[in-house]
């Protein structure tokens, strides 16, 4: 006969094994999701940063109005990277001669090794305090909001904010992009962000955190998706860092990680709700999703780089050409540099 202690031990062992079976077999997404949650400390740290940026912007606006100053508008280029900045030489050529019209901010994942070329580069890039990011988690939203807030704090003349990945390249000269962005009065600058309401997998994306998990803040009919990469006008950048209500939902863990791309949902949904007429509803970054693999778009290699490719990537169905394109392999840098002056930067 079993002693009472043996029985208790056996029962405890059975319950422990059952719990492990549930966690690892029946609910694998629980462990995956919880590892990518935003900690309370990190969230509060970000909220403090966003508050400082919002207050700073208001103060700087009042000061510029009182002094009747009209400084040249700048574009803040926000690089979101988790690896080396392979295309730095191409961007260096892109920025050359326009030091007073741009700023560069880099959010590099703490696990990445950012290119040492920056130390000798003519690009005066600013590294911002970064936290680790992961796909299918709200960490990328936090990183992008962090980039916006730091750029707002750093220079009040940043009036447009272009989010770029380490795999992006420019498709036009800096002058072309700057002139087209600032061709209208600053009070009417549009943001260039993709906003879609008819994407085939919209229902699955909406329910990625669980059925009705987004309610009541975000109804299904208000949910939008779009490209991760955008060019935001300053008023919309401020709107993003001031927002609190939607963030409470988007920072929830994803249960269906295959349908969860928070950074492609949060920004389109927010701006569609707050100022749909102030947004273009299309992106300025060209991405080729033909033959995509594992959620990643087609990646151009060195053999595909040509003047014809650049011209084809520029073409869009909107009133503006595409400004940027992704993704490109590191090996494509050399052929891109060979056609930079004659093709890419010749508009």
UniProtKB/TrEMBL annotation:
GO terms for cellular component: membrane. It comes from the Eukaryota. InterPro entries: BC10-like, Glyco_trans_14. Keywords: Glycoprotein, Glycosyltransferase, Membrane, Transferase. Signal peptide: none annotated. It is a single-pass type II membrane protein. It is found in: Membrane. The keyword Transferase applies. One of its GO terms (molecular function) is glycosyltransferase activity. This is Core-2/I-branching beta-1,6-N-acetylglucosaminyltransferase family protein.
């Amino acid at each position: 006969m079993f002693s009472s202690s043996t029985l208790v031990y056996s029962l405890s062992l059975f319950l422990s094994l059952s719990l492990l079976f549930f966690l690892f077999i029946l609910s694998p997404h629980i462990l995956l999701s919880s590892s990518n949650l935003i900690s309370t400390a990190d969230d509060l740290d970000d909220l403090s940063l966003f508050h400082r940026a919002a207050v700073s912007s208001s103060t700087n606006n009042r000061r510029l109005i009182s002094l009747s100053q009209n400084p040249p508008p700048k574009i803040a280029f926000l690089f979101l990277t988790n690896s080396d900045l392979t295309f730095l030489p191409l961007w260096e050529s892109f920025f050359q001669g326009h030091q007073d019209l741009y700023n560069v901010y880099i959010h590099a994942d703490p696990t990445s090794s950012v290119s040492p070329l920056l130390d000798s580069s003519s690009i005066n890039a600013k590294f911002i305090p970064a936290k680790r990011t992961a796909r299918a988690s709200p960490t990328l939203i936090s990183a992008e909001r962090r980039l916006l807030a730091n750029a707002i704090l750093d220079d009040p003349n940043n009036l447009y904010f272009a989010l770029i990945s380490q795999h992006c390249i420019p498709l036009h000269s800096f002058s072309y992009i700057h002139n087209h962005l600032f061709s209208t009065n600053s009070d009417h600058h549009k943001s260039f962000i993709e906003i879609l309401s008819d994407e085939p997998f919209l229902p699955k994306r909406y329910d990625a955190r669980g059925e009705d998990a987004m309610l009541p803040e975000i109804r299904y009919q208000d949910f939008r998706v779009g490209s991760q990469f955008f060019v935001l006008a300053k008023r919309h950048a401020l709107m993003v860092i001031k927002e609190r209500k939607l963030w409470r939902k988007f920072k929830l863990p994803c249960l269906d990680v295959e349908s969860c791309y928070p950074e492609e949902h949060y920004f389109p949904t927010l701006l569609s709700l707050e100022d749909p007429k102030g947004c273009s509803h299309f992106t300025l970054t060209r991405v080729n999703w033909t033959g995509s693999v594992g959620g990643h778009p087609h990646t151009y290699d060195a053999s595909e780089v040509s003047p014809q490719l650049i011209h084809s990537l520029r073409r869009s169905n909107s009133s503006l050409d595409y400004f940027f394109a992704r993704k490109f392999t590191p090996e494509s840098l050399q052929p891109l540099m060979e056609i930079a002056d004659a093709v890419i930067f010749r508009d």
